[in-house]
């Protein structure tokens, strides 16, 4: 198959691409390096630099190519502070990229694999979250959550009108060893906490809200495995799937785990005392997010293999080279 990977230089795409190449697929990647700047690397696939928000760029792609599948990973994504400081960029750019790809490429795309987010459940009051819960859930509060839900509806609409098959994936709180720290609240919470505890050695530790927010952290290797193995399966055609580790963890528990791992690897003094300095949080901060993964387990026998302790240890060992 000939496959387009958007956001190809991001860490998730970089893990999916080798899986697809092993299956003999031809890969073309595109990225605009918006988050971390240009990345120099050896690539054994065709690559172009371009912004999918630019209509001319998208039209030029489909003037030259038709694709058996598009894996649409490109998106603006931040932590809780970034969601609220850059809401216009997020909702405009994320939707523009998805719309451009399908508006100008629907006759050149057989299958569209859309990477959504567990943030589509941000206002759901049912736990664990099932794929059908978004049918009657209240409209998302954050621009990011709403942008992902709109992206899902755009994807489904192009199937309904033009027959473009799709698969929609909703990952829960991905932990990747490759995330770089940014301004507080712009990184995902695990990276933010590692930076504040193991680098800045904050004591007391700044946390947003009361620290009792519940998340289910999923290793990027597990997510990449599912996307690569099941996105092109007949069984996943026109389906939506949660992907997640079902292990609920509060932000305070996350911090305690980081402290424990840090001490075990000599990154914190033994007398470091974990205490908390509670910071104001946005009113729409999600208090609890837990996936129901019965569907992906039933269809493919998939379960997350890596638990949070292993994921955090992997991230910390990679970051500090220990």
Helix % is 25-40%
Named CATH topology of the largest domain = Rossmann fold
> What is the correct CATH architecture of the largest domain?
3-Layer(aba) Sandwich
Strand proportion: 15-25%
Q: In DSSP terms, counting alpha (H) and pi (I) runs of 4 or more, how many helices?
A: 10
Catalogue the unreliable spans: none
Shape: globular
**What structural class is derived from the secondary structure elements?**
alpha/beta
In whole angstroms, the N-to-C terminal distance is 40 Å
Averaging pLDDT over every residue, what do you get?
94
CATH superfamily of the largest domain: NAD(P)-binding Rossmann-like Domain
Please name the defining characteristics of this protein:
322 residues; alpha/beta; Rossmann fold; UDP-galactose 4-epimerase, domain 1; 2 domains; 7-stranded parallel beta sheet; two-stranded parallel ribbon; 10 helices
